[in-house]
Structure formats: structure tokens, C-alpha cells
Amino acid sequence: MKRALYAVAVSMAVACGGGGGGGADEPDASDVVIGANTTVVAFEGEHVYFGGEPNRRTVDKPITFPEPGLRYRKVTLRIGLRCPTGGCDYWDRLARLSLVRPGAADEMVELELARFITPYRVGGQFTVDVTDLQRVLEGPQMVRVFIDTWVQPGHAQGAGWLVDAAFDFEGGVPTPDPFAVVPLWAPQRVVYGDPARPIDVTANLDVPAGTTGVRLRALVTGHGQGNADNCAEFCARDHTFTVGDMPVTKNLWRNDCLTTAVPGQQGTWQYARAGWCPGAMVTPWTADATAAAGPLTVSYDVETYENTCRPESATCSGCTLGAACDYDGGAHTEPGWEQSAVLILLR
To answer: In the predicted model, what is the mean pLDDT of residues 1-30?
Structure first.
């Protein structure tokens, strides 16, 4: 079944400007105004943990970015994790920082700015370049931090995390100049290896006149273990975004954990994984994707694989880590890809 998670008709008024729009019908570089150097704090010691009302695995906060339309040579997101009283979570957890914005039919949707994996039992400091996203880092916004933690104050395996996050804006004109951010897919999990649920994900949009370049920016990580080939956390696979008729393919594998992840952790943080390391930022997948003005379809797929170690398999085989065929939420979890993507329109 094909899933069009976003069907986007992009104009400057829709895609440009975080405070509800702005700009002309076509890009115009003559209107450039340089912004002053500034720092915007999103979170400061925000306690993220399982439980609370509402559940504090997800925390939303209204903040105000610089006014719409200003240009910045560079925008850097800094994220810090500190241990609360009771200690940091013992386990590596999927986490992200997002904007929460109105989507189709006024439904609120996430636009993922950055993804990181928490370290085992210790804090850490991370940075990521978000210059390409500056056209949505404007005006009043709702910022969200999410950590997939299952511990809370008083738990034997830690009390969660204290989260710091800030954006550093450096005035200047980026080259090329990103004038719009087009969401393709909000953060979502795509099941991998089940023939009854094939990956078939697409989005449609219009590229406005005046666009001189298109850049893909995606965040993709593999999760699930105990399956055939120990997918998707520990299996390298080719992933392909097709932008119009242009395929962009990458073998998703991260083998630099020993030198890039937070040192001094517990656990298996040194091992290579499908696009991530415990205690490290997930590196955005960026690629040039030439596209002419007009209607455009973008799709996502992963190389063919069947997980024969699953409950519905006619013959259960290939299980790893001593797992049985049934998923148990621990040693054996369903393989899948956590994925989100945007297109950056350039001038």
C-alpha cells in the first residue's frame, strides 16, 4: 500500500518563514537582510523521563527564533545531556529535537531537526549544523524534545535525562541560500522484512520557479534485533530516495562509534550499527537532488530483505541472539527504519 505522508504544494508563502509564512511568490536574492549573531535557548535542564501527566518522554516548549527573512551564514544546534538525581538512564535511547507545526487539515506534525542516541549511564554534549533549516527556525515556534526512555525518578536503572538545547545563529549569507524547507515525512517507523507490509512511501510537491538547486536532508536509523541478519540495528543495507527521476542511494552503516561516541560509557557503544552510535548525534544524510520547477514526486525504499525470523513466517529460520520466532520486546524486536526527510530549496 502506498503511503503519501505529505502531499505538499509549495509556494514561498507556505514553505518559507517559521512564523506563518512570508516572502514573495518567487525567490528574490535582492531582499537579503543579514541577521545579528544571537543564541536562542530551547531547553535548559529539562527533565525527560517516563511517567508524569502528560508523559514526560515528550516535552513541548514555545520559543521565539529570530524574525522571519533574516539570513545566517551558519546555524548550529547544541544539545547537552546531564544526569538528574538518581542517575542517567542505563540504556541507549532513540531521541530527537523537532518543531511541532500545523500540517494538512490543521493536524499538528513534527519536523525533525536533529536525532541523537543517548549514551549508556553518562551525559554528553553534541552539535549539529542546521543552517539548511534556517527558514523554519523563524519567529514563534513550538519545540519538542523526545527521548524513548522507560525509566523515571526512583527507578533502579536511572531517573531519565536533563536536556539542554540551544541554537547559535551567525549572521551572513549562506552559499547557496536555502529559501524554503519542504517536509516530506514526519518521524516515522517503517517496518522492514515483512512481505505483507512492503516499503512504499511517497510524497508529492511543486517546486517553485526560481529554484536553482534541491538538497535532500534525511535522518534514517535502523532498529530491531534478534532477526535474520540481526536487522535492522546491526545490518548494513542500501537505502534509496528517488527525487523525480534521480535516485540517491546510500549504504547505511556507522563504523566510527569508537572514536565519535561519548567515551566512558557502559554497554556495547563501540559496535558499528545501522546509521547510529550510542552517545552520538545521528549524522544527517544530505545529497544534491537536481529537480526542475513544477510537480515532483519523492519516494523512499530499501534493498529487498525478508525477515524469516518473525511470527508469521511459514518456516521460522535465521534468528540471532538466541531469539525465538515471536517478538518479545527485548532480545527480539521487529526490524524497522526510523526515518524522516525534508527537501531544501536553494537559490
So the answer is: 41
